[in-house]
Amino acid sequence: MSEQESRDNAAVDAVRQKYGFGFSWLVLMIALPPLVYYLWICVTYYQGELVFTSDAAAWRRFWSHVAPPTWHAAGLYAAWFLGQAALQVWAPGPTVQGMKLPDGSRLDYRMNGIFSFLFTLAVVFGLVTMGWLDATVLYDQLGPLLTVVNIFTFVFAGFLYFWGLNGKQWERPTGRPFYDYFMGTALNPRIGSLDLKLFCEARPGMIFWLLMNLSMAAKQYELHGTVTVPMLLVVGFQSFYLIDYFIHEEAVLTTWDIKHEKFGWMLCWGDLVWLPFTYTLQAQYLVHHTHDLPVWGIIAIVALNLAGYAIFRGANIQKHHFRRDPNRIVWGKPAKYIKTKQGSLLLTSGWWGIARHMNYFGDLMIALSWCLPAAFGSPIPYFHIVYFTILLLHREKRDDAMCLAKYGEDWLQYRKKVPWRIVPKIY
Ligand SMILES: NC(=O)c1ccc[n+]([C@@H]2O[C@H](COP(=O)([O-])OP(=O)(O)OC[C@H]3O[C@@H](n4cnc5c(N)ncnc54)[C@H](OP(=O)(O)O)[C@@H]3O)[C@@H](O)[C@H]2O)c1
Fold first, then answer.
1. Is residue 387 domain-shared with residue 341, that is, in the same domain?
2. Alpha-carbon gap, residue 30 to 146, rounded angstroms
3. pLDDT tens-digit series, residues 52-82
4. Are residues 186 and 247 both part of a single domain?
5. Do both 113 and 135 map to the same domain?
6. What does the record list as coiled-coil region(s)?
7. C-alpha 219 chain-centroid distance
C-alpha cells in the first residue's frame, strides 16, 4: 500500500470514529424496526393519523396489527430473494473493477442491474396477466412480509457476523459482538461470485420498492376503480429514479457504503427493510386517499421533480466527467479547479462552484416532489423528506471532515471559494 493510500485509510478511520454511531447504534437497532411497523400501522389502519395515546388498551389494539409471518409471505420472499440473486450472478452485463481495497487489490462486479430490473418487470407482468400472480399481492401481504423480512435480516446479519470473523486483516472485528453484529465484520462478503453487499444494496430492496408501488396502484384501482394522478406521480417519479439508478449503476462502486462500510445488520436491514417499506409510504397512503390535485399543483410538482433531477444528475455527471478529463468544458468555459497536493482535482466551476453538494440539494428536491402528491392530510408521506434531510446533512458533515482530513489546506481553500455546503445562500 502506498503512503498516500495508508493516509487515506487513516482519514477514513478517523472520520468513521467521529461520525460513527457512538452508542446510538443499539438504540437504532432496537427502535427502528418498531418505527417501520408504527408507520405502516398508522397508514394502513388509522388513515395516516400519527397515533399517540396514553391509553394502554388503545396501544394494545394498535400493536395487535403487527402481523405474524405466514408461509405465503415467506415463500414469496424466498422466491424473490433467490431469483434476484440468480439474476445478479447469471444475467448478462459488463464486468467492472471496484475501487482499490486496503491491500491494493480490486474486486470484479457484474453490472447487470438494468437487465435484471427490466427482466423482473417483464416476468412479473407476465405472471400477473396470466393470472398466476395477484397484482395486489404485495399490498395484501404487506404486514406478514414486513415480519418475514425483519426476521430474515436479523438472521442474515448473524450469518454475516460469523462469516466475517475469519476475514482479512483489515476486517478484524472490534471484539464487541453486538456492535460487530450491527456494523458487520466483513467488508465484501461473497458466496462464489455473488457479492452480498452490492447485491443487497441494489436488487432485492430497490426493485422490490418499485413492485410494491405498482401493487399499491393496483390496490387503489381494485378498491376505488381508479388510479389517481397523485398515485401516478409518485409511482412515475420513483420508477424514473430507479431506472436512472440502474442505468448509472456503476456509480454505486464509489459510494461510502461500498468502499468503507462493512456489511452487517445496519446495511442489511436498511437495504431490505427500511428502504422498500418506508420509501413506499407515499404510495401506501394513497391507496386509501383518492384526492385530486389542481393542474397548477401538478405542474409545480413535476417541475420540482425535473429541476431536482437536472441538478442531482447534472452535478454527479459533471464531477464524474471532470475527474476523467479535467480539460473538459464546463458550462461553456474551461473547467476551473484546485489541484490538491495529493494530485486529486477539486472542481470549482459549474454545479461544484455554486455549493459543495448541489447533488444533495437536487436529491432533496426530488424527495420533496415524492411527498407533495399526497397533499397535506397526513404527516406520514412527509416522513421521507424529514429522514432524508437528516441523512444528507449528516453525510455532508462526514464527507467534509473526510475531505479535510485528506486534503488539508487545499480543502480549506475550496471551502473559502465555495462557502455553501448544500443550499446556495442558505446552508
Ligand atoms: N437515495 C439515497 O438513499 C442516497 C443516499 C446517499 C447519497 N445519495 C446520493 O448519491 C449521490 C452521491 O453521494 P455521495 O455521498 O457519494 O457524495 P458525492 O458528492 O458524490 O461525493 C463526495 C466526494 O466527491 C469528491 N469531491 C468533493 N468535492 C469535489 C469537487 N469539487 N470536485 C471533485 N470531486 C469532489 C470527494 O472525494 P474524492 O476527492 O476522494 O474523490 C468527496 O468525498 C448524491 O447525489 C446523493 O444525493 C442518495
1. yes
2. 16
3. 999 999 999 999 999 999 999 999 999 999 9
4. yes
5. yes
6. none
7. 25
Give the Cα separation of 298 and 230 in Å (integer): 8
Quote the ligand 1 centre to 224 CA distance (angstroms). Answer: 42
Q: 250 C-alpha to center of ligand 1: Å?
A: 14
Query: Does any ligand 1 atom lie closer than 6 A to the CB of residue 370?
Result: no
Chain segment 258-291, per-residue pLDDT in tens = 888 889 999 999 999 999 999 999 999 999 999 9
Q: Do 201 and 252 touch, CB atoms closer than 8 A?
A: yes
Residues 369-414 have pLDDT tens digits of 999 999 999 999 999 999 999 999 998 998 898 888 888 889 999 9
Q: Which residues span the domain enclosing 369?
A: 293-426
Residues 225 and 357 in one domain: no
Distance CA 26, CA 5 (A): 32
With beta carbons less than 8 A apart as the criterion, state whether 200 and 268 touch: yes
Q: Is the CB of 255 under 6 A from ligand 1?
A: yes
Residues 197 and 264 in one domain: yes
Whether residues 213 and 315 fall in one domain: no
Asked, for residue 258, whether it belongs to a domain, the answer is yes
